[in-house]
Amino acid sequence: MTFISDSCIENIRQRVSIVDVVAPYTQLKRCGRYLKGLSPFTHEKTPSFFIDVQKNIFTCYSSHNAGDMFWFLMLKEQLSFPESVEWICEKFSIPLEYEASTSGHSKTGTPSAAAQKKALLQLYARAHQLFQQRFWMDDPLAHKVQDFWQHERHFKLETARMFEIGFASTNPTELFNTLRHEGATYEDLVQSGLFYQPKRPQNALVSRFQGRLIIPIHDIQGRVIAFSGRHLPFISNPNDPTQESKYVNSPETPLFVKGHTVFNLHRARQANQPDQPFFLVEGPMDVIRCWECGLKTAVAPQGTGLTEEQLKLIKRYDTPIVGLFDGDAAGIKAGVRLMTLGIPLEIPIHYYRLASTEDPDSALLKRPALAQAIVPEAQTPIQFFQSIAREYTPNRVQQQVLKHLLPIIARCTSPVLRFDLLNELSVTLGIPQRILEAELQQLQTTPTAENPTTPADSKPSIATLEGQILQALFQTPQWTPQLIEQLSLDWIDTTHPTGQLLVKILSEFQTNGISSLQDRSRWQLTPEEVELWSHALAAPYLDTKHALETLNFVLQQLHRRFLKKSLYKIDKMLSESVNLNEHSIQKLQADRNACKQELSKVASHVYIQ
Fold it and tell me: Nearest-CA neighbor of 320 among 286, 297, 303, 294?
């Protein structure tokens, strides 16, 4: 974990005026020793926003907010404190400095997480520049790519500039040779994920993106951290191992964690207006089509499935979400996941169902006016589940709606939200609310096959599989890199505080590098997490030999539990497959076979050596 140095923050305060930070958001006029303007936080006609230039602080009497330039950005742009510091450093060309213990190189001489991150950002910025230059070249191949964008995909060239679209060379080593010649280290190029590593070390690296349309992926500050490359039908490259893949995406790197990244969020948050929703679609092309049709707040989750972390990123902006996924069975499944994860987070969610043969890109291309109908015609969660039940199980609509919604409502921690949802459910289904409340109470106290643990004893404890991993992170840090590589976050049960703390630590390590857990002062911990932290530190020290054996056994159990849950879900879907088409059933059966095959290998697998 890296920390911005106090000297860097003080340097910003000395060199940057809050006036320059605030100026893009409101027009300021002199008023004695102050500057005043309309509040950037509320809609008002009489100025109530004041800046004290001498103290470099603001006061907003309309919203009752006050503070320095960092706090202003944290409120206005919904950034964390480190993000606000990075934002100012980048905008005003101030070197971003970290504490001596975490900057430059570590005690072992290896580059720190901060140094690696900086190097990778520079690499991606340069690669992005090269991709863009090649897209706009005045040569026959670039013209073909531009024609594909305009006439095959039916996008405007202005949109290509807006989304910074690029084109990757068909030469497999051109990008490597260029970046290497410009001074990039071999190690940084390997870690960047831009290349495939050859069998022989120090050989020229082969570009991951060859002859593809390049869509850059940005972080919340607008910095390029990954790419998505789309296959172009007029380019054939038999030496490219990914030739048959429609899309090739950057792997996860210290910059890019798919489950923590939302495509286009940096633009959507700037385009967001009060009461305007974010439109959650499946992929970058859907986002770009939405943008052209006026839906400027369209975003898409990175990775193969929506995550709670991605929804929490969107929740920062305190705005509703409208799900706009493909109309097929996979799109409906994505909608169910959106409801399952989003409702307990207290995010207002609606869903617009497309026809089974449509996706947002194709639907909006055929009917651009559809963009205006999405919000008024979007379904509430209850209407969404009703529509699915009527289509797939018309004789069991009531039972299916309750089956899906009650477990979601049970996870809501807000009594007000639970009451409102049960009230709407009661009115919609014609079931007295007291009966629904009794069903909910029964559900909350009864173990299920999918979740065999009962919530009756929620006292923090390290006497769980997750607790054993937690103890290993504290007491045997030499195995932490292998743990991060081998342990999927999906294996962790986050229904209890131990699992939640473990995910918090591992996610932080993946994002900002591994750091010591001996000092908890800089972690924002709940009281339960503080108790767990203390237990993990105070537990009897693990003998190295037996600890390694135990750790591998624990990883086996976590992996086995995850696979069994996956099998349970697949078998459940197959048992209700009356209305699934043949292709969907075959896909489920293939997934089941793969899952069983993987399960058979778990007992002999060695995760950490």
Answer: 297
